[in-house]
Amino acid sequence: MRLKCLPYCLISFCCLLAVFHSYAQTSFENVVQIDGVTMTADSLRAVPDVTILVKNKNRGVESEYTGVFSLVCYKGDTLQFSCIGFRPKEFVVPKDLKGEYYSLIQLMVQDTFYLPETIIRPLPTREEFNYAFVHWRIPSDNYERARRNTDAYILRALAYTLPRDGRESQARLMQQQAREAVYYGQQPPMNILNPLAWGEFFEAWKRGDFRKDSNPYSSY
Predict the structure, then answer these.
(1) What is the spatial distance between Cα 86 and Cα 146, in angstroms, rounded to a whole number?
(2) Is residue 216 included in any domain, yes or no?
(3) What's the mean pLDDT when you consider all of the chain?
């Protein structure tokens, strides 16, 4: 029984192989490579950054700085050309095209864009202008925010008021333990009888370092 079915299986396999080979050969023959350049229609200057898409297919390319582009598609496909400042264009690849390569020069026509009008009116009275100039708060731009965030006076104030983090606390504790280890087993010296320390104290007192008004962080 199996031997009787073998010829029919071989015939079916050969037919499928012939159909697949014919379909593959037809599909390969329909493939074409488009090499072209995008230029202006009035002065024949290269138009860079033109988007070339295959219509109804999610693929495409973009022209280079010199306007040159290369794209692979099927014969009969529609190419869509679009660029800011130019009118969109379409090109249909001929179905009866001979060969696998095609050269294209696509001319782009400049387009005019009309923006909505902007009306600038002055304030009604001089008093309202003076009030707005003094009291209105204009939003700061990114440059002004960055300048305020890196201001040296504000950074000093934050360093004076903010508590220490874990790393700073650990460093302070290690320094204290190191000082205690130096005088381990003996009485540490007292600076109350140190003439140099008294001299620094008198100099600071003359400068006014201990006055409240001289504290640069008193306003915070």
Answers:
(1) 39
(2) no
(3) 80
